[in-house]
Amino acid sequence: MNQLGANTGIIVRRIRPADYASYGPAFADLATRALEPNPHMSPAAVTASRVIVPEDAIVILTAWLSEALGSERLAGIWALRRQRDWRTGFAAALTCPILPLYEVSSLPVLDADHGQDATQAMLRHLLAAGDLPRTLTLPVLPLEGPTFLALEEACRVTGSRLRICERWQRPVMRPQPGDDSERYLRRTLGQSYKKRMQQFRAIARHGEVGFQRLRGEAARVALPDFLALEAAGWKGRAGTAIARLPQASAYFDSLVTLSAAADSLQIDTLLLDGRPLAMGLLVESAGTRHFLKIAYDESQARHSPGRALTIAMLQADFAGTPPDLFDSGAGDGVDAGTYVWGERRAMGNAIIGLGSTSPSLPEAAARLRQGLRLARTRLRR
């Protein structure tokens, strides 16, 4: 289905997930000129999600800018999922990202010069489609930056209701000109800098400390080590480790294989006497890096291996070229103070009622979940 945006030269098309698998070069080109990259919109991420999500439940919107001589340029991509369950109040909705359990951003990827036009065209397409729900649920939406502003304006123009049901602050890293690892850590850790670095250096008293950064195919080969480390801890005992969940294991195997082929995969490992103390699984796109999963040796908890890994990762970043944005991927229940990344990104669980200003069942369900979580938190105190 094609739809022309109102006087903008933007055409919106839906494409099949199977066809999107071949869009790697086009997506990479769009990401380099995007308002904000998002690796979860990549063909690798969408293709991997098909291990868990039926193909007919995935809706991929592409926005194209008409140019001279009949040519077109990709101006936007938004990968969504049809959903109807307790999270949506059992009402039909479209959700982004496709797998919020594992993916950490709901942002579409938009051409920096045509972001508002592309966003408005995509919302108009959804409004005009007779076969799609009129509600968008965006559970991990950054509430700041140019893409959110474009989304806000598109909602205003299309008469749509944008409501934020939950808010939290996510740790991120945005390096400043002239930063190195010591300067950055001193600024972000403040008075705790000396204590944290003493703890980090104290690990060397218990053996030889090393750090390994793997990318591409080498990172893919290291995935079994990551899964084994995770499964050796409490998640393995509880049956929630990736290696204990066949669908999740198949999904991550596909994601890692496809991301490695696209050179967007990274696995970082902090080693003690040659054995993994902690490992991190990351994906990236055009200077934006997302931290997806961490695993650590729980028998070495006295070393705070998770925090130690993040310090080693940060040092490695500044030893080379750090990412423009490092996103910790932390959810709303995570204490931001446990991370060494000092900047904060406002996040929210957003719900958009397309062409409507009335509250929806998904919004009511989100409010109910928020209330239940608050009550549970109070009871634990």
Automatic annotation (TrEMBL):
Query: What is the protein name stated in its UniProt record?
Result: BioF2-like acetyltransferase domain-containing protein
Give the classification, highest ranks: Bacteria, Pseudomonadati, Pseudomonadota, Alphaproteobacteria, Hyphomicrobiales
Q: InterPro entries, alphabetically? A: Acyl_CoA_acyltransferase (IPR016181), BioF2-like_GNAT_dom (IPR038740)
Domain BioF2-like acetyltransferase: start-end pairs? 198-332
